[in-house]
Amino acid sequence: MKDVNAKVIRVESLNSTVFKVDLEVRNTTFIAGQYLMIALPSGEKVPYSIGSAPYELPALTLYILVSDEASLASKVIEHIQHSESIDLILPGGDAHIEQTPSDLTDPLLLIAGGTGFAQMKSIFDDLVHKGYSNPVHFYWGLRTSADTFVMDWINNHQSPDNFHVHVIVNESSNDWNGRTGWLYEAVIEDHLELTNSHAFISGSVGMVYGTLDQLEAKGIQADNCHSDVFAYAPRPKSE
Predict the structure, then answer these.
(1) pTM to 2 decimals?
(2) Is the pLDDT of residue 55 over 50?
(3) Cβ-count burial of 238 within 10 angstroms (0-12 exposed, 13-18 middle, 19+ buried)?
(4) CA angle in degrees (0–180, nearest 5) for 213-144-206
(5) What is the pLDDT of residues 66-96, one digit of tens each?
(6) N or C: which end of the chain has fewer CB within 10 A?
């Protein structure tokens, strides 16, 4: 990882809690699925998944959830909003596809909860750009329809027929006409055989391990599952 300075291009509120941050970063690179850290003047370093693909550089996008005005994320957004440039440390993380897995014929599953969307979007867009020819299914789970954002990208993204995006809202409501239920249920409903599938999972620690439990029960191999959570919050080994 190295220190770089990024020009702040735009900070946009997408809904009541999520901000999209557009930056310009020169003389750097990363692999789709990796993250960066924002260095605050206080000395704190806050990690965020990169939400854009490498081919989009020097443009770089982040999606930042601010659920509490007293949170560290709120401090991050305030710092960005009042700065012409910010200091970053990047790239980090091993939950990525460095080389396109040409030998993988079973569906590649990209599974995200909330703003975990950013990491999976980066991988999805990168695979489209590289002309990946096997099936890719991107599952994005949210609690309510009010938690959705970037639905313009969901509805209008340009990708080949082998790429699919599924949005699943946990709580049904009159203003949501899409799929509802638990995220893992949608994955299992669509893919009855997971033995040879690979999955990338992003979200909270509980969401990642809860999803992993359900997928393993349906045959997916633990070695075929990838998440940054495995590095910073490893599951205790059973006795």
Answers:
(1) 0.93
(2) yes
(3) exposed
(4) 25
(5) 988 889 999 999 999 999 999 999 999 988 8
(6) C
pLDDT digits (tens, 9 = 90+) for 120-144: 999 999 999 999 988 999 999 999 9
More confident residue, 188 or 104: 188
Work out the number of other CB atoms within 10 angstroms of the CB of residue 208: 23
Residues 6 or more apart whose CB falls under 8 angstroms from that of 43 comprise none
78 in helix, strand or coil? helix
Handedness of CA 200, 164, 145, 174 (dihedral sign): negative
**Alpha carbon distances (Å) from 128 to 12, 32, 107, 163:** 26, 12, 14, 8
Residue with tokens 């959570």, as numbered in its chain: 229
